[in-house]
Amino acid sequence: MVEYRIDRHSGVATYVQIVQQTKQALHLGMLEPGDKLPTAREVVEATAINPNTVLKAYRELEREGLVEARRGLGTFIRKGLSTTPADSPLRLELDDWAARAQGAGLGRDDVAALFTAVLEKHFQGEDS
Hints:
It is a single chain. The protein has helices spanning 14-27, 40-47, 51-63, 89-103, 108-122; strands spanning 67-70, 74-77. It is mainly alpha-helical and 128 residues long. A two-stranded antiparallel sheet has the order 1-2. Strand 1 and strand 2 form a beta hairpin. Helix 1 (14-27) crosses helix 3 (51-63) and helix 2 (40-47) packs across helix 3 (51-63). The longest helix is centred in the C-terminal third of the chain and has 15 residues, at 89-103. The protein is globular. The chain starts with 13 loop residues before the first helix and ends in a 6-residue tail after the last helix. The model has no long low-confidence stretch (mean pLDDT 91).
């Protein structure tokens, strides 16, 4: 099951962080069709956010066709986005690179800026 991490200083709306983290878990194969998302109550208890924020995120995911709410049962993944498994050699290389960047004294924001610049260079014009 996915565990949401909310960064209150990121400037990204909380519900958007939940949507993004759910999509990331789908892309990495950590969530698959049929998997159940945590209940709004579980997310609220783990993150101390408003239940309406969780519900807004889940409605957005439902609008995008990624999840479906089943009355009385919960919210379930409808379709996956996984194209690269979590244990992919590319992920391992990226993990190693991030560790080297951290060892070189780069902070999270520096690494994110570098990575975003490289993504923009190689994936110009593509939708995510």
